[in-house]
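Internal QA ticket QA-208
Title: Verify multi-chain structure generation after dependency bump
Assignee: T.L.

Test input:
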Amino acid sequence: MSVIRTIIVEDEKPARDLIKAYLAGYEGIEVIGEYDNGFDGLKAINELKPDAIFLDVQMPKLNGFELLEVLDHHPEVIFTTAYDKYAISAFEQNAVDYLLKPYSKERFIESLRKLESRIESRPAGSDIEKIRLHLAETDEKIHRVVIKKSGRIHVISTNDIHYLEAQDDYVMVYTDDGRYLKQQTMKYFENHLDGEQFVRVHRSYIANISYIERIEPYEKTNYILILKDGKKVPVSRNGMQTLKENLDF
Amino acid sequence: MGHPVTGSRRSVIIYLFVWLIISLLHGVMLWHFQDFREIIVVSEALVSSLLFGLAGLLAWYPTRYIPFQRNTPVRSLIAHVVAGLVVIAAWLSVTFGILNVVFHNEKDYIEFLNRSIVWRAILGGMVYLVLVLIYYLASYGEKLRERMQQEERLRYLVRDAELNILKSQFNPHFLFNSLNSISSLTLSSPDEARDMIIRLSDLLRYSLKHRENQFVPLKEEVVRIKDYLAIEKIRFGDKLQFEFEISPVCEEYPVPTMIFQPLFENAIKHGVYESTEPVTIRFDCQQEGDMLKTTIINNYDPGVPSGGGTGLGLQNVKQRMELSYEGKGWIKWERENGRFIVTLFFPCKFTGA
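Actual output:
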């Protein structure tokens, strides 16, 4: 069996040192890089294509979950984090492991064994898609959206989103700086965007309340939103109901 | 507060019922002491009582708008007497008008009616007085209920604030990451690990000991803040820098325990956690007029969309400043050129509760 190549993405030096110290003397696993933020980690993973990554959740610029969303290369993932508010059981099935800080050497070695057997039995990559699906099922609110566009990673604050439009399996995100296509469902955005700020006004549209200029009648029974930049967004009857509740009119 | 009688259907029915009983008593008395026809007895009883019932509704308005607490008692009394005279005069003239027209053929009755006018006016005055008293009691009762509700709400707010304080004292994320760093340092640098354990213990002991809304000298609070920052510095290394400049006059000043902690946690969370560049947190305290002015400034990476946050920490500190200094201390915060600036003003004269 060949050596397993790993990358550590973790913003705290002592935490990185601990992983390396635990790995010292362990045969068959090598660390080919360590990075203290999500952006550098993402770039390195796509370039170096490691077999596995040790991934912290809380990190500057791009957190661990956001990094997984935009990764091209799919390595095995071992989460290392102090968070336990996410459904750990969900990760247990798809990520190789979920190490809650602080963790013992024995617990760490156990993860490595899981990693080895996973790579042996299924050498063709991991289940990042499944991890993404499980992430979508949590009810954690998002405050930014990470999108790949022509090879670059854009981190968009939800405050800058004007509205979202469904496009088959994708969602088009409209912002000040143009539009971005994101592989995600409307349901996901409806559940994860702040309900005080974003309203599902139509089966295919979610609008940011702070960008609404006015609401006008359209044809006989329908309404249409006029946004601050003049764009028009259709409103369904249910959407109008939700708008009324949210805006109190 | 609305009219206590017309405010609900139930009170209207009760009011009407009471006046029907009074009307009945009126009729029985009239029938017992005088020798008039039944129709006269019944008519007078109904017309007189029901009209008074109607006029009595008006007595509410002087009661409502002439509260005894605010005006001088003499002025209120005069106002009530005038209002009462007007109501009774109106009641008597309408009652007499109706009965005189209807029974103009009954000479005995009309004579009796006109003879008894003074007695009727006096009785009317007494009933009016009772009504005014009842109205005052009703409005007093209502005020009492409102005050009790307000107190209940206040108690709830205080308890809520206390809970928030507890929550803000332990950030589990900080705690477990620090423990992980210590775990790492035991291998690479046991001395540093020991130092970190001692600082962490001091910090935890301090936050446990001062769980209530107590005051401590500012310098003691600063020692704990430095412990906190030292622990974070081990985690983040050169990415975290801090500077303290505290004027000696501030050192003994009493501040609520852990008042700065959430602000430094915010600076770390939004500054250090979200940045890849070094972040400096600066703490200043000096006297300015009759206030002590404290500022906490940190730079942050404005290019990175914030990971969110509910502003709970800032709101919590704001609430505590208002409660602790009885409205004389306050906090403001602003963003300016990639820096987040929190300023707290403490009243100099305040010596602690």
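Spot checks passed. The first strand of chain A starts at residue 4 and ends at 9.
Status: verified.
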